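Hi support team,

I'm filing this because I wasn't sure whether my run with nicotinamide-adenine-dinucleotide finished correctly. The job status page said complete, but I'd like someone to confirm that the output block is well-formed before I use it downstream. Pasting the exact inputs I used:
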Amino acid sequence: MKTITVHASQTYDIFIENGLLDACGTILKQTTKAQKAAIITDDTVEALYGARVRASLEKEGFEVIQFVFPHGELSKCSATLNQIYDFLCENSMTRTDCLVALGGGVVGDITGFAAATFLRGMDFVQIPTTLLAQVDSSVGGKTAIDLPGGKNLVGAFKQPVCVICDPRTLDTLPPEIFSDGMGEVIKYGMIRDAALFDLVAAHTQESISAVLEEVIAACIAIKRDVVEADEFDTGERMILNYGHTLGHAIESYYHYETYSHGSAVAAGMCMMAAKTCDPEVTERLKKCVKAYNLPTEVPADIRALVPLCGKDKKRAASQLRFIVCRVIGRAEIHTMPFDSFSLWMEA
Ligand SMILES: NC(=O)c1ccc[n+]([C@@H]2O[C@H](COP(=O)([O-])OP(=O)(O)OC[C@H]3O[C@@H](n4cnc5c(N)ncnc54)[C@H](O)[C@@H]3O)[C@@H](O)[C@H]2O)c1
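And here is everything the job wrote out:
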């Protein structure tokens, strides 16, 4: 088993091993004093893995209760959050009990926010079951729900007591959701780790499963390092946004319907690389992106996308901060007046 320790405002371990789902009860027993564990999950993940997680927790003597909501981003909202609070009240959960987030980033984000706020804070464990959740959203302590006015507008920093990562749960992921997570994996290689990029580039969507444990651990280690240096996202954590400035613009231009987040980030990275890298670096990135069935560009005109780049949280007044990787494995934070950015991108 690989163990990665995160030293944030709370120190905790991330355990990574194929088949680890069945040991979640044993791990939780060692990491919390909870008597009762409330599994929060969505309907798809509950059908696939709910029984195994319940059995493992019950074997270790936990009283287990479970709240299941419909899968999908639309559930990451205040209505579901209120239902979770009511469920926790009805079941007399105390501050020493524990929430178990079993699922993708939607489950992790809303459960983490419930854990940060219910009774002013209680323990929670992350059991991420999508690639994106394993390499990204379950690590770092950002939790949130969406509002009608935008994504992740209400949230809190709340670190879990541990993260239990079983790469075998990814075997049941639909291929397009797996690809979506690969967008973030490729990003980690670009911003921090040329060896990780080489490993990922040497495989394809069909062959990567042989080295997935290694790839996931490498990504988590990068996110851990970045989070430890900037837990509350005031500086260096920004490098995780490589590909995201254009990526968010692409998602927004297509009304969040045509391109998934990972696809938009992949295209965003390639478009930024074309502006900033030697042609052979851009070609390597594009080849890698294509090997995971992700787009290297989008049909929308760059002049329509650029104005939307200012709409995410990285635009301070008229200045735009964005991430550039001129070589594979090293990210730089750039700041430019928004008008100059527009002219530069459109040139
Ligand atoms: N907190 C953070 O730092 C952070 C970082 C990145 C993204 N996010 C958030 O993460 C969310 C996206 O996460 P996601 O892509 O995991 O989406 P998701 O949680 O909606 O999962 C995608 C789909 O996969 C299904 N699924 C999950 N595990 C499965 C499995 N093992 N087999 C088959 N199906 C499975 C789910 O039911 C869902 O339908 C967004 O809300 C985003 O804002 C948070």
